[in-house]
Fold these 2 entries.
Entry 1:
Amino acid sequence: MSDRKLRVSKIRNGTVIDHVSGGQALNVLSILGIDGSEELGVSIVMNVPSAQLGKKDVVKVEDRELSQSEVDVLSLIAPEATINIIRDYDVTRKTRVEQPETVTGILSCPNPGCITNGNEPVETSFSIVADGVRCSYCGTIIRDSLADHIDAE
Amino acid sequence: MMRQDHLITATQLSRADIETVLDQAAEIAADPQAWAESHFGSVLALCFFEPSTRTKMSFDTAMKRLGGTTTDMGTVESSSVKKGESLADTVRVIEGYADAIVLRHPSEGSAQMASEFVDVPVINAGDGAGQHPSQTLLDLYTIRENAGLDDLSIGIMGDLKYGRTVHSLADALTNFDIRQHFISPESLRLPRNVRYDLHEAGAQVREHTELDGVLPELDVLYVTRIQRERFPDESEYRKIAGEYQIDADLLSEAKENLTVMHPLPRVDEIAPDVDKTTHAKYFEQAHNGLPVRMALLDSLLGGDDK
Ligand SMILES: [Zn+2]
C-alpha cells in the first residue's frame, strides 16, 4: 500500500478502513459511534481516485482495533470496504465487511408510528432484505439512502 | 399446537398452524361444553390501549368459556399509562397477574416489542396500521366454511393501506392456492412491506381501482371501511368512499355463491339490503370469533390435544 494512495501518514496501531464509497467517511464514523470525544486519533481522506470505486474514502482510527461485528454494519453504506488491523505499522489482518443478518441500534425507523420511535426502552433493529433493510418491529422497508436514517447520537 | 409462543403477525403462521387452529375451532363449535373446564384457573389480561368493543368482548368470552377468567387494564385514561408509563413497563407488571396477554396498541410493532419483555404469550389484537392476526384466523375459518381454502379468487376492498385486518389476511392467504385481488383508491393501496411479503411468498396478486371488472370472477369479497380521517376534506372522502360501496343490486353481477365478508363495524360500505341476500356472511364471521379465539387461547396456553 503506497503512501501516495493513502495521502495520510501511516498509523502505528489501530484500524484502517479502506475502499469506503466516496463521500461516506463521516457516516462510517457515525455508525461506529466515533465522534472525537473518545480522544482517539482519527484521520479521514475523502473522494480520492479509486480504480475500483471511481472515488473512495479512507478512515483511519488509531489505537483501536475494530471487531468484525462492529465493521459489518458498514456494509449498509460501504459494501466494498476493506478493514486493515494495524500493529506496529504492519497490517496484521485484512478482511472485507460482511453483510450481517440484522443491524441493531444504528438506524432509526422512518415510520413515525413505529414503537421504536415511542418512549420505550428498546433499540431499533433491522433485518437485511433483498435490496434494503426492514424494521423488525413495524416491517417498514428502507431501500434508498440508508445513510439518512443513521441515528447519530 | 402452534410452534410459536406468541401470535404477533400473520406471516409467522404456516398452513399447518392455521389448519390446526381452524380444525380445533370446528371441534369447539360443535361441542363448546366439552371445553368448559379446560383452562380452569387461567387468567387472560386484556390490555386495550385503543377503544375496542367486539375484539375485547370476544377474547373475554373465549377465556371464560374455557373455564378461565380475565383481568382488564381498563381504559388508558384511567390507568398508569396516562402518567407516562412505558408499554414495556406496563406489560412487565401485568405479566405478574396473567397467563397470557392480549394487546391492542396504536403503535406499529408494539406487540412484537411487548413480547420481548415478558415470558407469557402475547396476542397481537391490533398494532396501529400493522397486523391483527387473530381476526385473520376467524376470517380464514369463515372462508373455509363457505368456500373452502384452495383454488379461490378473493377480492379485498377498501382501505388497504391502513387496514391491519387486510395486512394480516393477505399475508396468511399466501399459504393457500388463492388468487388475491386488491381493490382500492390509488392513495389507499397496499403498503410496500405487505406487497413485499406477497411477492416473496410468490402469491398471485392483482391490484385494481374498480370493483366492476373483477367482481364476476370472485368467490369471496372482503370489504373494509374507508375512514373519513384518511382524506383532507369531506367532499373528497364522500366521492372516493362512494366508489367502494356495495349493495344488493351491484351483487347481481356476482357469482351466485359469492361470500361477502367484513371485519365490522360497517358504516355504509355495505348497504343494509345486502344483509338479506345469501351472500352476507359478516355476522356469521363475527360469531366465529368465539370458537376460533378459544382454539387460539387453548393452543397458546398449552392445551392438551383433545
Ligand atoms: Zn419500525
Note: The beta strands of chain B are 43-48, 69-72, 100-105, 122-127, 152-157, 178-183, 204-208, 220-223, 259-261.
Entry 2:
Amino acid sequence: MTTQEILDGLKQAVIDGDEDSAASFAAQAIDAEIKPMDIIKGAINPAMDVVGQAFEDGDAYLPELILAGDAARAALDLIIPTISTDDLDGSVQGTVVIGTIYGDAHDIGKNIVSAILAAHGIKVVDLGINVSPKQYIEAAFAEDADVIAISSLITTSLPYHREVINNLVDRGERDKFFVVVGGGPVTAEWTTQIGADGYGRDARDAALVVTQLLEGLAEGNKAPLAAPILVGALEHG
Amino acid sequence: MKNKPDILEVLHRATTGEYCTQKEWDTKKIPLTISRILKEHGLAKTCDMENPVNMDMELADKFYAAGYQAALELGYLCTDTDRIIAVSQEELDDALKHAPSELTVGEGKDATVLKARTPSDPYPLKAATSLGITLSEDIYADMAYLIANEREVDILEAGSLTTIHGYEVLSGTPTETRMGYEHGVMHREARRKAGRPGMGGMGSISAITEYGQFGAYGTPGGFRNTDLALILFPSEMKVDYRTLHKVVHTLNMGGIMKCDSPGMIGGMPGPAEGAVISSIACALLSYAILHTHVGGGEIYDVRYLATVNREGLWALSMTNQALSRNTHTLVHNISNQVSGPGTENLLREIAAGVSIIAASGASLTTGPRSAGGKLNDFVTPLECRFLAEVAHAASPMELSKVNEVVKALLPKYEDSIKEPDLGVPFQKAYNMETLEPTPEWEAAYRKVKAECIELGIPLDA
Ligand code: B12
C-alpha cells in the first residue's frame, strides 16, 4: 500500500468508527515509517473534522461521534508512544477524566463533550454518571490525568464541585490537576467562586478551554490558575 | 395469557436479564436496532420539515408498529446491574390492555380527570405547570401559590428547591430527604392557599434522587397518593435503581405515577424518525416494566436543546398521534421552549409546541420550559396560564389547521432557537408588591394571544 492509501484507510476507519481497522491501519502506518505527526494530521484530524461537521449538520448522531472518537483513540494509542517530543510541533496532548457529578444522571451533554475532546486527540477517560468527588480524584491519579472535567445539570449537586477542589487543596495536591466545570446551572461566577480553572458553555467551548489549559501546561503553567478560563458564559437579565 | 410482570419479577430481571454494558447499549444496541427497524418499516427520512405537524395517520400507525417492535426487541437497560429488563409480547399486551384510560388526579371538586384521547379529541389536554425550574427559597411559596391560583392550570408541579431555611441541599444526602418533605408541605399549602385544596399535584420535581421522593411523596402533609409521583428515567430506554426505588415507593404508598424519558433527536437513536421510535417503545414499556399510570412519548433535540424546532415538533406530533391512536393509554408530553419570561417568543414557542401536543391526542402536558429551564427564577405564572389556555383551546383543532398555525409561528422564532432571548427572571417580569405581571409582560401576553386567535387557536372561545 502507498502512504496515501494507508492514510486514507485510517481516515475512513475513524469515520466509520471501526476501532480494529483503525488500529490495524495505524500499525501499518508506523511500519511504513510514516511520521507520527503526518499520520495524525493526514488521517485522524481530518477524519474527526468530517464526523464533527456531520454531527453539527445533523448528518451524524451521537453514537457515530462516540465511536469515531474511540477509533481515533485506538489509533492514537499506537501512534503517540512513537512521537518524540521535538515532533510534537504544537499539537496538544493530554488526559482528561470526565464524569457527571454525584446525584446527577444527565449524561448526554457529558457524552458530547467527551466525544468532542476525543476528536481533538485528547485522551478521555469517561467515569460515567453519579461520580463522587473522591472518584474523580482517584481516577485522575490512576490515569495520570491533566484535567478533571465535571459535568452537572443539577443545582443541588453543584456543591460537590467545591468538594473536589477542597479535597485536592486539603490533600496538598491542588497543583496536580486542572479542574474544568460545565453544564446548565454552572456559571462563570460559580467557577470563579470555587476556584476552578475553566468553564465552557458547550462542547466546543469545553474543547477550547481544555486545549488552552493543556497548551499552558506545556508552557509550564500549573494548576490552579489565578483566574479561570471562561468561554461562552451566558449573559442575562 | 401471561400477565405483565409483577414489580418483584421486574426487580428480579434487573439482576438476571441479559448482560449488556451501557456503552454497548448506547452505541450499538440502541442505534443499530432502531436504524434497522426504521428501514424494515420504510420510515427513514419521512420527517417533513415543511409540515411540522404530521397529517398522515397511516404513517403514524406505521411508526406505532415500529415502536412496538422496538419495545419487544429492546426492553430497558438497568444501568446499575448492566442487565436488560425485557418483556414478552404477551406481557406487553397485557400491560397495555390494563393501563388506565382515565385517571383522577387530586381529590374532590378540585381534582382533574385525565382521559385517553385521540387526535382532535374535544376532551381537553390537561396542563401541569411549571417545570422544575429552580426557584430561590424566598419566592418559592409565592410562586407555587400564584401558579396554583391560575384557574386554567389543572395540576401543580411548581419549581425546584435548592436550599431549605438557607441551607444548601446536597443531592443524595439527608438534606435532600428533608428538602423533599418541606417541598411536599409547601406544595400542599400553595394549593390550599389558592382555594383549591384538592387540586392535583405532581412531584416531587426537587427530588433529584429517591431520597427526596421518600421525603415528599406519601408523607403526612406532603404529596398525597392521589397526586402523581413524578418519575423520570435516563434516555435512551435506561432505568436505574433510583428510578425503580421511586416506582416501588409509589406502589407502596398506593399512589399513582407518571413515568417517562425523552427520545433524543441527534442522540443515540439518531434522526427525528429514530427518536420517535425510541420514544414510543420507551412509553409502551413503561406500562409493563414500571407499572406507570401515565406514560411518556417525549422528544428532545440535543442539537437545539429544544423541542420547538421543526424536527422536534414533527417528532412530537408523530409520537403523540401514534400512541393516542393505537393505545388507550394516558400520554404525557413536554414541548421544551428556549426563550425566557418577558419575551413574546416564549409565548409563540408555547403556542406551537402545546397546540401540537393537544391536537395530536395527548392527555397531559407539563411545561413551560422557560429560558430552556436552566436559569434560576426564570419562569412566571403568566406563561403557565398561557400554556394551560393553549392546551385546552387547541385540543379539538384539526391537525391541518394546527399545521398552518405552527407554520406561521415558526418563522418568528426559529432563527433564534440556538441563541434565544432569555428574558428576565420572575422578580423583573412581575411587580413584586402586587405579585402581578408588569404592564410590558402583560402586553406581550395580550399581543401573542391575539396573534394566536387570529391564526386560528380558539383562545377566545
Ligand atoms: C433530558 C433531561 C433529562 C433526562 C436525562 C436523560 C439523560 N440520559 O441524560 C431525564 C428525563 C432522565 C431527566 C431527569 C431529571 N431531570 Co432533567 N433535564 C433534561 C433536559 C430537558 C435536557 C438535558 C440535556 O440532555 N440536554 C442536552 C445536552 C446536549 O445539553 P447539556 O447537558 O446542557 O450539555 C451541554 C452543555 O451544558 C455543556 N456541558 C455539559 N457538561 C459539560 C462539562 C464541561 C466540563 C463543560 C466545559 C461543558 C459541559 O456542553 C454540552 C454539549 O453542548 C434539561 C433541561 C435543560 N435545558 O438542560 C433538564 C434538567 C437538567 N433536569 C432537571 C431536573 C430537575 C431533573 C430531575 C431531578 C427531575 C426529577 N425530579 O426526577 C431528574 C434528575 C435525575 C437525576 N438524578 O439526575 C432540571 C434541573 C434543575 C436544576 N438546575 O437543578 C432541568 C434544568 C429541567 C428544568 N428545570 O427545566 N432530565
Note: Chain B touches chain A through 48 residues (CB under 8 Å).
